[in-house]
Amino acid sequence: MYATRSGPAALHDGRGRCKRRARVFMMREFLEIDPEELAAELAISKSNCGVILHRTRVTLCVCPQTRWFDERGNRKC
Question: How far is CA 59 from CA 1, 43, 46, in A?
Fold first, then answer.
């Protein structure tokens, strides 16, 4: 699933979780909120918060690897 999407669509899983993933990621990475505080603020468990962050990071890493570069590491665009 992750390798077939890019850009904003990469964060959307087709089940309405795009906004939650984006919110968790932005709060953690840009606002630098601690995971414990973040989990409490969003009423989710700390482990769920970690899973959301991990999946979002993986998705964001796959996008440039599959869309911007070919197998040899040369830029596609």
Answer: 9, 23, 20
Q: Is 19 exposed, middle or buried (0-12, 13-18, 19+ CB in 10 A)?
A: exposed
- pTM metric for this prediction: 0.63
Cα separation, 21 vs 12, in Å, equals: 8
Tens-place pLDDT, residues 47-76 = 999 999 999 998 887 766 666 666 666 776
3 state DSSP class of 63:
helix
Q: Are 6 and 63 in contact (CB under 8 A)?
A: yes
Dist. CA 29–CA 31, nearest whole Å? 6
